[in-house]
Amino acid sequence: MAVSNQDEEDLLLDSLTYQRDDLADRITNLEDLRKNIPLDNSRVSTVSDTRISASLGKLDTLPLELVHEVILALDLQSLTNLRAVSSTARALVNSNPAYRNVLTHAPDAIRAYITTSLASSFNIAQLLDTLCTQLCALCNDFGAFLFLPNCIRCCWACLTQHPDLLPISAGHARVIFGLTKAAAGKVPVMQTIPGLYKMRLKSCHMIRTEPLVSKLTARRIGSAIHGSREKMEAHVAKIRAKQDAAYEKKIAIYHEELAERFEKWERERPSFEEVRAAPMIKKPAAPPFSGDVDQKDDDVRRLLGVIPFPTLDRRTGRRQVGVSCKGCTNTLPIELIPNEFYPQGIGSGHAQYDGRKRELARMFTDEGYLKHYAECGRAQSLWEFKSKGPSSPL
């Protein structure tokens, strides 16, 4: 079903879409970020409107074009330090088109990188490139979130389900990717942001920061060290097989010792004091991180390194945060589509709805939604109902 004109497109978007504040509320609290990292309290000055107050040393001797190239190459932490030198330096950095675009349209990304100690791992050019993309790096849906450890865009479904978007500890990365201590030191460490995070079935109040690393980065470094991903996986599997075999032997001895002790007590009937005084038989430790399980959308680690992230059209300068389709969620009157039930939100707690998590969390740009609408029978039925039915808000 095609939409005929701009006015109808605007009305359709207004009636059939909504922003996903419910998802944004589950991750990093942006208000706390803005309070802790003010970024000049929203002042954005340029070279032309700021009085020269200090020399920039050797930078003053370079042509402006080269200075801007230097700004693009500096990591975000160095760029932030440069801006703090003087009002001249701040104005110079602010005059850089890439920095100005990010500061104007996605300042929370800069704040998040500073707060998580990842600012030294990425530069403003990388952040702008990601800002000007639309698709999730792991699928073809619109990605409304920034996965900080890799500076990539992701959608909610991949964020909560894809195995590569689970941040892990550096020790875990060393084990599963066969990294030496020196190699593990090359993986950027994200210091998580304390706050309240809401998973599918429960909430978690993170009081302290927790150092985590990206699986994607650790795997890339591990593959480079071992020559290829296949060689890395073979190396890790060989080591793990040895660890598992050694653990099986230890656990067998442990059970034998327990059985012998119980048989002895059965024969001798020791007193309570004798039993209490007997040395404890210690159970052997399992191989490192064997109990580390990815709990998908019930794993708080997945929410610790992500923020909402708009998209910017380089040509038009238009900023979009993404919207969801009311027809794909719970707003469509049940009586219009018999024999269907719509759970209230992502992860309703019913296993039969797990397959709908991607659909329930899917987001679009305005243009993407109009294409989706042409194929979405539920949205079309809802539009028809809205057009013919009562004027109550959807």
UniProtKB/TrEMBL annotation:
Superkingdom of the source species: Eukaryota
A Pfam family reported for this protein in Swiss-Prot or TrEMBL: F-box
Entry-linked InterPro entries: F-box-like_dom_sf, F-box_dom
Domain F-box: 56-102
Name this polypeptide is given: F-box domain-containing protein
